[in-house]
């Protein structure tokens, strides 16, 4: 009897619809865990690279030299390095243009950084919507399998004259397995989505703060260069 009611036996003896639901939930779970590991690695590396570059940026290094260093490894630059590269490149290109005011040059630098910022945020938020979808629909998919399994169990129960618990128990048990699998797929996806969303928000704020700080430094450099020219 224990063999008949084992989880493995219940899964293989379940109705076709319930088996398809379980297979779908298994696919959701596998995809969800793959995305969890991949996003975790990406966000961890991005946060570490941002901190490392900020330490280098605030170490007192000359910005022109730092720009050359970032340019040399442009293909492998981190998100914050790309922000700096875009902003400083635009500033260096336009600051000697006498037809442009300080405000116009700084706005152009900020726009260049905003474009890179938008691309970087799209990269960091990639697949988060899929995790959210898995977390939100998996319980309902599992519930559908549960309802279907219980419905079949009671239909079979109504077809016999003398009903016993042993007759309906396997059908109810296989139906509840679908619910459990739905929760197993949903819970990690929801936890990971909330955690990753918080991490992306922290990185986003870090990027925005860096852009404002860089813009303030570029503004001071503009003022110093104009003062030197006037002297």
From TrEMBL:
InterPro entries documented for this protein: ExbB/TolQ_transport, MotA_ExbB_proton_chnl, Tol-Pal_TolQ
Membrane topology: Multi-pass membrane protein
Cellular-component GO terms for this entry: plasma membrane
TM regions (residue ranges): 16-36, 128-151, 171-193
Domain (MotA/TolQ/ExbB proton channel) ranges: 78-207
Biological process, per Gene Ontology: bacteriocin transport; cell division; protein import
Pfam families (UniProt xref): MotA_ExbB
Protein's name in the database: Tol-Pal system protein TolQ
Organism: Pseudidiomarina indica
Gene behind this protein: tolQ
């Amino acid at each position: 009897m224990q063999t008949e009611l084992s989880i493995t036996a219940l899964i293989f003896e379940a109705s076709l619809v319930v088996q398809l639901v379980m297979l779908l939930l298994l696919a959701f779970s596998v995809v969800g865990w793959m995305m969890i590991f991949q996003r975790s690695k990406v966000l961890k590396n991005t946060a570490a690279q941002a901190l490392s570059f900020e330490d280098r940026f605030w170490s007192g290094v000359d910005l022109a030299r730092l720009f050359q260093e970032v340019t040399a490894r442009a293909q492998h630059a981190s998100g914050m390095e790309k922000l700096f590269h875009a902003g400083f490149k635009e500033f260096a290109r336009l600051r000697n243009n006498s037809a442009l005011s300080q405000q116009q040059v700084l706005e152009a630098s900020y726009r260049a950084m905003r474009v890179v910022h938008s691309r970087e945020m799209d990269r960091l938020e990639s697949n988060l919507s899929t995790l959210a979808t898995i977390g939100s629909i998996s319980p309902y998919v599992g519930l559908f399998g549960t309802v279907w399994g219980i419905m079949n169990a009671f239909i079979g129960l109504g077809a016999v004259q003398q009903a016993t618990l042993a007759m309906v128990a396997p059908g109810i048990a296989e139906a509840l397995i679908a619910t459990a699998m739905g929760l197993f797929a949903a819970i990690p996806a929801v936890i990971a989505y909330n955690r990753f969303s918080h991490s992306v928000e922290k990185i986003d704020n870090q990027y925005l703060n860096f852009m404002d700080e860089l813009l303030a430094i570029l503004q001071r450099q503009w003022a110093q260069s104009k003062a030197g020219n006037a002297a």
